[in-house]
Amino acid sequence: MKLIVVENYGEMSRIAADMISKRMLEKPDMTLGLATGGTPTGMYQELIAGASKKNISFKQITTVNLDEYVGLEATHPNSYRFYMNDRFFQHIDIDLENTFVPNGAAADLAQECHWYDETIKQLGGIDLQVLGIGTNGHIGFNEPGTPFDKTTHVVELTESTRKANERFFSEGKVPTHAITMGIKTIMQSKEIVLLSSGEKKADALQQLVEGSITNLFPASVLKLHNNLTIVADQASIKKLD
Ligand code: F6R
User: Fold this and answer.
1) How far apart are the C-alpha atoms of 97 and 106, rounded to whole Å?
2) Burial track 152-168 (b if 16+ CB lie within 10 A, e otherwise)
């Protein structure tokens, strides 16, 4: 595990975007695993700015997102598909056909989960997966207690996660369920970059770095990955020894 400590959110976003751009130059047809939420929005802005400044193309890139709310159509302003199109995809030259987000409105959710894992397999796996971290240690929507051997599946969201995500909801309530890439799927990524910013993540980051590996704190599994980089700002590492 490599820990890169940065000053603030802006620097975290720039470093994350630089890491991705570097990998894209090495492998222009890479598969990039992406996250939503508040943490990566600055990174998307940096990637958009960098793409036009440095002439970096996403034409051959494929993306797979971690998760999606059950019951929200792609056009719903709070769906993660909408978030990705709105904040990232429509500002770069990526082919939308090469962007994958689980379909939370699928009639058969079990089949959707199976199809999602098959898609990732057919892509040859994820080259670099970007993660945020929940205050309860969730990664993707893998809540505490999720077995480490889970592939993509449907989860019931905890109250704390629904509460934390209320801030994004412009319409209606935070859904009760989501589809998420499983921990096994995430751990099969060749490289993982976890981003952490702000004081509210300080307890989670301390538990991740200093705590033991347990599925009661899902992010702890990442310590078993052989190519994990954590990019964390000063506020979020404040409780580290
Ligand atoms: C989002 C995701 C979640 C978030 C986590 C942190 O696709 O999978 O695990 O990364 O909830 O969210 P923020 O960044 O809003 O603090």
Assistant:
1) 18
2) bbbbebbeebbebbeee
Residue of 130, 121, 113 lying closest to 33 (CA atoms): 130
Strand partners, 33: 64, 129
Cα-to-centroid distance, 116 and ligand 1 (Å): 19
- Domains of the chain, CATH where assigned: 2-180+202-235 (3.40.50.1360)
The ipTM assigned to this model is 0.99
* pLDDT tens digit sequence for 62-106: 999 999 999 999 999 999 999 999 999 999 999 999 999 999 999
| Confidence class for position 9, pLDDT limits 50, 70, 90 | very high
The structure tokens listed for 76 are 């719903």
Instruction: Tell me: pLDDT of 172 over 90.
Output: no
- Catalytic, 233? Answer no
Ligand 1 pocket by Cβ (under 6 Å): 35-39, 66-67, 132-134, 138-141
Is 14's pLDDT higher than 80? yes
For tokens 């904040």, the residue is 87
